[in-house]
Amino acid sequence: MEERYTTLGEFIIKKQEDFPYSSGELSRLMNSIRLAAKIVAQKVNQAGLVDITGAFGKENIQGEQQQKLDVFANDIFIQTLVNREIVCGIGSEENDDFISICGADGSNNNKYVVLMDPLDGSSNIDVNVSVGTIFSIYRRISEDGTPVTQADFLQKGINQVAAGYVIYGSSTMLVYTTGNGVNGFTLDPAMGTFFLSHPDMKIAEDGAIFSVNEGNFNQFEQGVKDYIGYCKDHSYSGRYIGSLVADVHRNILKGGIYMYPGTVSKPNGKLRLLYECNPFAMIIEQAGGKATDGKQRILEIEPTELHQRVPVFCGSKNMVEKLERFL
Ligand code: P6P
């Protein structure tokens, strides 16, 4: 089959061979995410037309005003995963605690847990800036058949079996890895089908884009300030949309570095380890880049809590290594 007409569904089946011992659950899990992404994409694209934007009147654990689409996306991803009885637990930015999922017979025989940010960057929805879904998949470590535990979620990023994101932008793309490279699929809305549009995505070792919120510049540690100065001395382009998925997706395609450093007021920065930094770190490393918290590889960080924050510097290998020499 000519690769450029490969659908996501066909690709998942074809890649099933990469998991000789898998019973097809991971494939079914990816198909569930594919369905949820299509449903959320349709609503995001209608956001300006349907009274679905604006505050939902509640706050999430972040203390952020939940947008209606935040809640909608969270419900859709949870529902599609639960309905197909594929996972034994879900952790979401929108839920204070993790969700334990039993089968119809009360058993917990499913072997995967999913961590997700169902609609990252949602504060950008009303101004029509690209937003995204980020997901991270682990094999449970607690005994099969028993209720899922927090330990199943607090695993190092190196244990991820899959990670990916959906970007709801000028087109909707689903990008993911199962540890054998990164592939991108673009949704054809007329057919409701994701087609392989970006096979074997790689991030250039060098780039000339730096992405950081310079409004926090005065609160950065000196090494970060010095590196930003280095970028400016070399006439790199400053590109910062304020929507993680859009910023990192652009930098993967064009080369660049994304930074959310710690500040005086937020020493651990803003981004969440388990469902923002770890999935992107896996994707970026699989694409040939690097991801660090400034001291260690993101994927090696030992998690301590579900919503913990870490500083993050990720993107083109040589740019991240140059930054590390400034710290
Ligand atoms: P700041 C959006 O709220 C988000 O979580 C990411 O999508 C984005 O990269 C970051 O926060 C922007 O944060 O502090 O620069 O506005």
From TrEMBL:
Protein localization: Cytoplasm
Residues annotated for Mg(2+) 1 binding in this entry: 93, 117, 119
Any one GO cellular component localisation term in the record: cytosol
Residue numbers binding Mg(2+) 2: 117, 120, 276
Record pathway: Carbohydrate biosynthesis
Main location per the UniProt record: cytoplasm
Binding-site list for substrate: 120-123, 213, 240, 270
One Gene Ontology term from the biological process aspect of the record: fructose metabolic process
Domain Fructose-1-6-bisphosphatase class 1 C-terminal: 203-326
TM helices/strands, residue ranges: none
GO molecular function: fructose 1,6-bisphosphate 1-phosphatase activity; magnesium ion binding
InterPro entries, alphabetized: FBPase_C_dom, FBPase_class-1, FBPase_N, FBPtase
PANTHER family: FRUCTOSE-1,6-BISPHOSPHATASE-RELATED, SEDOHEPTULOSE-1,7-BISPHOSPHATASE, CHLOROPLASTIC
Subunit structure: Homotetramer.
Protein name, as recorded: Fructose-1,6-bisphosphatase class 1
Organism annotation: Paenimyroides marinum
Lineage summary: Bacteria, Pseudomonadati, Bacteroidota, Flavobacteriia, Flavobacteriales
